[in-house]
From TrEMBL:
Lineage: Bacteria, Pseudomonadati, Pseudomonadota, Betaproteobacteria, Burkholderiales
Superkingdom of the source species: Bacteria
Listed PANTHER family: THROMBOSPONDIN-TYPE LAMININ G DOMAIN AND EAR REPEAT-CONTAINING (PTHR15261), THROMBOSPONDIN-TYPE LAMININ G DOMAIN AND EAR REPEAT-CONTAINING PROTEIN (PTHR15261:SF4)
Key words, A-Z: Repeat, Signal
Family annotation (Pfam families): EPTP (PF03736)
N-terminal signal peptide: 1-19
Protein name in the entry: EPTP domain-containing protein
UniProt key word Repeat: yes
Membrane is among the record's keywords: no
């Protein structure tokens, strides 16, 4: 099996590798015209410890890079134990980074942690607000009219673990001074969010590993369930509009990734895009069309994972997707795309090596699509 840095045909050319440990996400953002990249890290390898994807030293930092002369260079770090996600957003002229991690310590681990929202003071990142969280996985910022929301996906079901912090996934709303609780969701193992508008409808997708993944619709000043998907394995959603129709892609770690079309009331499946292993999705509107990146994580089980997988890039054909390219990942977790100096790039984070170690490169590719 080729390494993540090996050259992929057709669309991708690797141009840089970043030395990361258990990388769980890639988040690009721009402040004052300067492109930056944030990478949360789940864990560091502990010398002599047997391989285990849920082991390691989780007292880690998020890595912050800046773009310089066609490459990312290290700029700073932020403390982020068991790092899972970094979400950048702006409120007016203010810049924020919402961070969260799933756990802390070197074992035994604590799943009760603190998620920190940072604000940039013009020079560096300063803590702005703290949240008591339990096994936190992802923040997602979105706006609905003049209202601003932060969605937190969190929770896990582990025998013998009793949460001391709130365990349910939550929506928080900006009250002009801070984010306050707005709506609790009942999922016990949240992973991911996606938000979409179609006409007057506002939809919020929530992926959950054990309680079924749902799409909610905004009704009567709250989000109400619209449609439920697979009972287990939910990892990611993405929405896009084409020719006046809303489409959705849903990734399930233990089952197929599916393309669905919205008929005005429900999403109906129309195409299967790969079998088990899908963890994250990224749409790219490139120079030659629309593309979908499907990042694959593992197959097997957490106790016996197969990390060396093939991830895919699909090209939109107006009614579905055609396979356009593929590339190797080892415990792939996320993808991000950006344009710099007239060239489009794709970033892919790998969280585990082929030997199930946390030391695995994040890869920057030139994207020629």
């Amino acid at each position: 099996m080729a390494t993540p840095a090996a050259t992929a045909a057709l669309l991708l050319t690797p141009v840089q590798t970043l030395a990361t440990n258990g990388a769980r996400a890639v988040e690009t953002f721009t402040i004052d015209g300067m492109l930056h990249l944030a990478i949360p890290q789940l864990a560091l390898d502990i010398p002599g410890q047997p391989t285990a994807m849920n082991g390691g030293d989780s007292d880690t930092d998020a890595l912050i890079y800046r773009w310089k002369a066609g490459r990312f260079v290290e700029a700073t770090t932020l403390p982020l134990p068991g790092g899972e996600d970094v979400e950048f957003f702006t409120l007016g002229a203010r810049h924020f980074l919402a961070t969260c991690g799933v756990r802390s310590c070197r074992g035994p681990y604590s799943l009760d942690t603190e998620a920190v929202l940072y604000e940039h003071d013009g020079t560096q990142w300063q803590p702005f607000q703290r949240f008591a969280v339990f096994a936190a996985k992802q923040w997602r910022f979105f706006t609905l009219g003049e209202r601003h929301f932060l969605a937190l996906a969190q929770g896990v079901t582990v025998e013998g673990v009793v949460p001391h912090h709130p365990r349910e996934s939550y929506l928080f709303e900006w009250d002009s001074e801070r984010f306050v609780p707005f709506q609790r969701l009942d999922g016990r193992w949240g992973y991911n969010w996606a938000f979409a508008r179609i006409g007057a409808q506002h939809l919020l997708a929530y992926a959950d590993h054990v309680d079924g993944s749902l799409i909610y619709r905004w009704e009567d000043e709250r989000f109400e369930p619209l449609q439920r998907f697979d009972p287990t394995g939910g990892r990611a959603f993405c929405f896009f509009e084409a020719a006046g129709t809303l489409w959705m892609v849903y990734a399930n770690l233990s089952g197929a990734t599916r393309l669905c079309r919205f008929d005005g009331t429900q999403f109906e499946p129309v195409q299967t895009l790969g079998e088990a292993g899908g963890r994250e999705l990224k749409l790219i509107d490139g120079a030659h069309g629309r593309y979908l990146v499907r990042v694959c994580f593992i197959t097997g089980t957490p106790h016996d994972p197969h990390t060396s997988l093939t991830s895919q890039i699909y090209r939109w054909n107006s009614n579905g997707f055609d396979l356009a390219d593929s590339f190797p990942t080892t415990g792939g977790t996320d993808a991000a795309t950006f344009v710099a100096d007239g060239q489009r790039y794709l970033l892919v984070s790998n969280s585990l090596s082929a030997k199930v170690r946390f030391r695995a490169d994040t890869v920057l590719y030139r994207f020629d699509g």
